[in-house]
Amino acid sequence: MAEPQTDEASLEQQLNATSLSSSSSTSDQNSASQLTLDQKFAIVRSIGEECIQEDELRNLLDKKPEPVCYDGFEPSGRMHIAQGVMKAINVNKLTSAGCRVKIWIADWFAKLNNKMGGDLKKIETVGNYFIEIWKAVGMDLDGGKVEFLWSSKEINARADEYWPLVLDIAQKNNLKRILRCSQIMGRSEQDELTAAQIFYPCMQCADIFYLKADICQLGMDQRKVNVLAREYCDDIKRKNKPIILSHHMLPGLLQGQEKMSKSDTSSSIFMEDEEAEVNVKIKKAYCPPQIVEGNPCLEYIKYLVLPWFHEFTVERSESNGGNKTFKTFEELTAAYESGEVHPGDLKPALSKALNKILEPVRQHFKNDKNARELLKKIKAYRVTK
Prior knowledge:
Catalyzes the attachment of tyrosine to tRNA(Tyr) in a two-step reaction: tyrosine is first activated by ATP to form Tyr-AMP and then transferred to the acceptor end of tRNA(Tyr). It catalyses: tRNA(Tyr) + L-tyrosine + ATP = L-tyrosyl-tRNA(Tyr) + AMP + diphosphate + H(+). Keywords: Aminoacyl-tRNA synthetase, ATP-binding, Cytoplasm, Ligase, Nucleotide-binding, Protein biosynthesis. Its main location: cytoplasm. Residues 1-19 and 21-27 have low confidence and may be disordered. The protein has two domains: 6-247, HUPs (Rossmann fold, 3-Layer(aba) Sandwich); 275-380, Tyrosyl-Transfer RNA Synthetase, CATH 1.10.240.10. The chain is globular, with a radius of gyration of 21 Å. The protein is an alpha/beta fold. It has helices at 6-21, 25-33, 37-45, 54-63, 81-96, 107-112, 120-137, 151-157, 159-171, 175-179, 195-210, 223-235, 275-284, 296-309, 329-338, 343-367, 369-380, and strands at 50-52, 68-73, 100-105, 146-150, 215-219, 243-247, 312-314, 324-326. It starts with 5 loop residues before the first helix and ends in a 5-residue tail after the last helix. The chain has a six-stranded mixed beta sheet, with helices on both faces.
């Protein structure tokens, strides 16, 4: 896929830095109106590891002043940094480029998938806790371009529109095709699924049209159901298909873990982890010397630290080479592969950067009574797969 040009990437970083460090939504809106089409495209396209299709995305940004982006999540336990930090970065990029973002709090879907034991009261508590985290970490919620929508309330409000759509999608797909989408729930085709879980992909596909989404901005693990939505457009002879922007999935901290999982607390960094917890987890993380491929520590720098701070500093004694600041991931990986930067240098620097990002979240959950009570409840819940 095409990479943004250097000057566009630089502009994207400036806008992202502004939206993460400033509460002035007016200035962000003014900046978005002054962007060229190429600049908007570079910012929005940078979110996706994959884009289906780039020409459609460019045309959308050219023709529609405020494209609607759909994102969603199942409230299911504590939030890790892939959900917290990456989503804040991506949402702020989208709004800085003039997009509107609808975040679907999929409480009914969490129930269908037996998250939190299917207890809707617990699921609602988790959903509210997620929103508190995004507020604290710096997601730009003041400009009115981000909406949190509870699936149960929204579906009930227009049930006569939603359920016929779900049934039509179900009728136009065979069971084998729907089962191939089971990955979106963290399941596989081999798992013994309940009837509710089989119905789940039809509902998630319907959400895209129900929310009038132009762009599906979800993880690579949700790709199959987004493709199902595009195929459904062919079935109903609809020309304007939802554009798919699938973002990268952060791995777990231990060797061979392709995706961060909240059920394995040793391999995940949670948004309200204390500084000492972050330090211990990074210290134990898989980080082989001179190896870039499959190195989670380097991935966290690439997808979290550099987009946030636009630089990464390794602090060392003068006798050990002195401090070194990297502006790009390519600079860092070259130094790491050569042995100039050792895991013993990289890990403390990564811990320091992550702790700086997470500190406002910690303070919010310590000082805000409502947030503190939510976290207390969340920590008492048992996470279910």
